Structures are given as structure tokens and as C-alpha cells.
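A favour between colleagues. Tell me how you read the following sequence-structure pair.

===
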Amino acid sequence: MPVDGMEATQSGCTLPLGRDDRFAFGGVPEALRVLEGRPFPLGATCDDGGVNFALFSQHATGVRLVLFDVDGTSRDIPLLTRSGPIWHGYVCGLRPGQLYGYRIEGPYRPKMGHLFNANKVLLDPYARAIGRPLTWDPSLYGFDRSMEEHPMDTLDNASFAPLGVVVSGEFDWDNDRSLEIPWRETVIYEAHVRGLTMLHPDVPNELRGTFLGLASEPVLQHLKDLGVTSVELLPVHACVQDERLVQEGLAQYWGYNTLSFFAPEPRYAVHDAVSEFKTMVRALHKHGFEVLLDVVYNHTGEGNHLGPTLSLRGIDNRAYYKGTLDNVHLLEDVTGCGNTLDASEPAVLQLIMDSLRYWVSEMHVDGFRFDLASALARRGEEVEMRGPMLQAIAQDPVLSRVKLIAEPWDLGPRGYQLGRFPWPWSEWNDKYRDAVRRFWRADDAMAGEFATRLAGSSDLFHRRGPTASINFVTVHDGFTLSDLVSYERKHNQANGEHNRDGTDTNYSTNCGVEGPSSNPDVCRCRDRLRRCMLASLMTSQGVPMLLGGDELSRTQGGNNNAYCQDNETSWVHWEVSDGDKRFLAFVQKTVALRKAHSGLRRSRFMTGESDTDGQRDIIWWHPEGREMSTTDWMDAACRTFGLLLPSEGVSEGCDETLLILFNAGSEPVRYRLPEGPHVWNVALCTSDRDVPVPDSEVLIEPVEVLILRAV
């Protein structure tokens, strides 16, 4: 049966198969009939009659589809039809489960950026699943690494190359739909599929480290108890396990080394990564959680010009990757990973857009966090906020409605773009991270900036509102919250890079002892700092994001770049001490406090001006019982202040006023409270002490946040 919409009279060819040619799906006729097929959609699309294959390669001179049996035997089928830059063919009788790849013929002229090598089987960029992962072997390189001129390598890599597999896409979503949680109600939980569940004692062994493990009842219950609304998963796209890491017994744990922009990482599946990912999304949605994906479209795992030939490099290197201005065969690298995809090129832009729409429409995800998003906005050496990709997303009827988060920088010229992304983007706010860390470390002259960050960073996002700021104190990249108060220096020796990797600018403290300590004073100091930073996060305007495991006091032993530690260094430990259980309860309480008070979740910036009823939306409060003055903010030694924050009204379900008092100093401070008919109650104290019911004044201890509410 021809593919839908295809005329039955199409010309085609018949390829005889030997008796021993057996394919993964079984039941293959003795001859395969190949029709012209159609150039869209790209990838492998199956119907009742067979599979349509379509591949972009602008500079190729020939394309061969390679079909594999489960035992590794293969058969090449020329795709004889070309529509513009798209090579295509329809193979009758094929079924889901078929393993496949491509061999691409064309010029091998490295100096011109062309690296075609028909000796190499290549992964389809549009493959919906990985049917066989790569196995490192010298034949994966398209050139002879033993010779300085790097001539074409003639070894056949068919036994080692990653292969795609045809999938049907059928799944019972059971009326699943996007939750569309408003930004102002959002609390993000950044998690790693594998690391979150590998050590969970109540997750069945066979499900640990998988999509299904993350969707298991114990994990769902933990997320419910925590109070978060959205789970942001570190990259789940199938990734390349770096050759160096494999040789050294390490792993590409974080996943920022993409192999396929459509296929889920097979390591996170028990059997079928596609259906199991969908099952996870359906379960998370059913329990009220959005699913956001951390996506890496700025580069691939093929590395620099000396890297392996796995997919895009061999399909059309010149079309996909940015070459340097002086030497087109050398790749521009604004990502620090060896190559940069050229999102201003139509084929690359289509690949990214098709991938994004696939994950929303077919996999039901609710949004994305874009790694090194500035790289995607580049045209030449300039970062253009009205460039092709951002414009394409803005007008797309599917993508413009989901959550879009930019990591607003890359490593190239003028790559730091915090605050410049257009609506409807939100952005990771590293200035927030640094201000909170430095204020609570008691650095000089930090009170003013800390207050600006608490109020939503209007200096950065004045045109979009506070929800454009994704606020965080810790994320996967850097110290955990426990390590932030336990280490002054990074300890990354286990990464095999002689402790040269990872940032040296952490704004951390060890409270007097580097690393673990049983000293009660040191432990008390660390606990106070963690609570204060967490309370600051949950009382800030903007969108808070928690690092998964921080609520359970996870430590990485001072490693601030654990990208290659797929082991207990990075995994979440669920067996915790009584003290850690108390901290977990504190985190739950602060999240609940945020959700209960509309004044902490505003969609507009506060001005300090009076409304028609004479009420001001914010007042910065001095311990002497007056407003903070310009002179107060300019005092480099200022480490204590408060803010009076009314709710947004009874219509929001709460008409309480909050007074949030911060003391990062080493001495207790007595606050005079605002005059008026208020009855003050303690809503939260980070020191977990009994605070007398305040009357006209209240004492706040060193390194403490005290939140009072008045009805």
C-alpha cells in the first residue's frame, strides 16, 4: 500500500533479498519494492503499507538508506528521488521496529567544509528513537587520525554506528492536555531523570533511573508534598557518551552532548523510550505537574572538526555547522563544546523548529529551557533578538504558547544577553543568584542589589515584568545548596581534568571548616544560611527554581561541575538524618507560604506609589521604624532591612500584609514595627525558634529571615 496521498502509479524499483536477510520486525517479503515517496515529513514515517524516508542533504551526490537486522547484517537501498535538497523514498512492507541509517555520497574536501564519506553509516537527524547506541571505535571517525593531512578514512563503521529505529507513534494519552499553569503561580523543580530515582528505596529496582521511575508514586508524592508546580528535566534527548569519559570510566551524566533532537535518551528507558517518556508525562500531568525540558540546540556531540562523524557532519557538514570566517573547515565554537549549529540557516532552523513542535505536539511537554540560548540568536558574529529563530518561535501557533526559558548567554563575543530576550521569553537570572549568595555571605555593599533582585529585577526585565526572571540560588551547574555553605573552593579532581574545570567564582562559604563537619557551631551556621537563602528565593518576585535534591541536603562533596559523575556523587540520597528532615519540612513550609500569599507572586513590578485607595504596593523598612533612605542603601555595611508587602487584594483570596525582615549581619537587630491597627503573627522564622508574639517591636537574630503577617 502506498503512503497516504501517494499515487499508486509511482515508479519504483524492486530489490531482491537473499534468504538470510531478516529484519527486526520480521515477516519481510522476498523482495522489497521501493517507490519515490515524498519529501515530507522528514525522517521515517510509517503507515499500513510501509515506511517513507526523507533526508535533507543539500550538497550530497547520492543517498543510500541502510536497513539493519537485529544481528547486524544490513542492506543498502539507494534513494533515487530528490526534491530540491530532500532525498526520499518509500519502502513497501517495512514495519515499526526497523533499524536503519544512511550512507551519504558526496565530495570529501575538508578545506571547503565538505566531509562526505560513504564508508560511514549515519544516524537520521529526525530519528524518533535510537535502536542501537554507538560503540566507540576508530571507524566512527571520517578521517584517518594517524595522518596529519587527515585523509578520508575507509573503515566501515556499520557495526558501531548509532542507528535509528522506525516507530509508530501510537499511544493512549487518555485525554491528556497541557496544564498551562500561569507564570506567577509557577515553582520550578530542576531534576535529573536518572539521578532523582537511582537511590530511592521505594522505587522498584527495575524502574530506578528511568522515566517510569520518575513517574512512580513515591516520587510523585514527594513532589506533591514539596509543593512545586513544574518539573524541569535536564536534557532527555539522546546524547553522545564522550570517548574520553568512556575510556576513563566516567559518563556524560548531564546530557549536554546531543546526538538526536527527536529521540529520548535510551538509558532512561526499561524497554521503549518513546512510550515510557509519554507515560511519564501523562502521569505528571495527571498529578498536576508541568514538564519542562532543558534542550541543547546550540551544538551537537560531534565535537570540533576533529570529532567523530555520527550524523550531521556526514550528512551535510557545510549546511549544519558554523565555519569560522577565515577557515570554513574549522568550526566556530561559541558553546565551548567544539561546534555551533547555524540556526540562521533554513535547514538548521527547520530541524530545531520541527523538533520543538514534535516534543510539544507528540510528546506533550509544556515548555523548554534553552541551553546557551544566545548562540541560537546569532547571525554571523552578532546576537540578534529579532533573528530567524526567535522570530520563528514568536509567530509559531504551537511554540509561542508554551513556557520558553533562555539561558541568556554563550561564550562568544557579546554573548551575555541577560534581560534582552523578547516577550514571551523568561530568562535564567544569574545576577539574582550572585546577589543572594553575596548578601548572605555578608559581602559589603550588597543590600541595594539584593533588594532589587527580591523585587523582581526591574532593571533587567522592565518591559516584560517580574515573571521574566527565573530566580535561583543553585542549579545543576555549580555547588548544591549544602555545598554552597560547606566549601570555599571547588573539588573537581574526580572529573579527570586536574581540577581545572568548573568555575572558581562561587560566592560560597564553608562556615569555618572546608567540607564535612560535626562541629555544632559550624553546622548551625550552615543550616541558618541555607534557610535564609531558601526563604529569600521563595519571597522574591519572579519565578523560583529549586535544584532537585537541595531539599534533601544533597552534597556533591564540593564538586561544582559534576557533569560526568553518573554515580552517588550526583544521585539524590533519600535516606536523610533527622536534621535533614527538619530542613525538608522547612522547604515545604516556605513553598506553601509563597503559594498562600498573592503579594509574593505579582505579575507587575511594584512602584512604591500609592493607589487610588492610598495603599502602597511596597515599603522598604528600616529597623528604626521608618522607610529606608537613599543614604541607608548606600551604606556598604548595611546588612539588615525589611519590606512591607501588602497582598494584591481580597480578590486573590488573601488580604494579609507581610513584613519580611532580613538580617545578614553578625549581631541581633531590634525592629520597630509599622504603626497601625495591625495584629502581627509569625508566619516564618528561618532559625526555627519560638518568637514571642510581636507588639510594637521584634528582635531578629543574626543570619535570619523573619516573616510577619498582619490581618
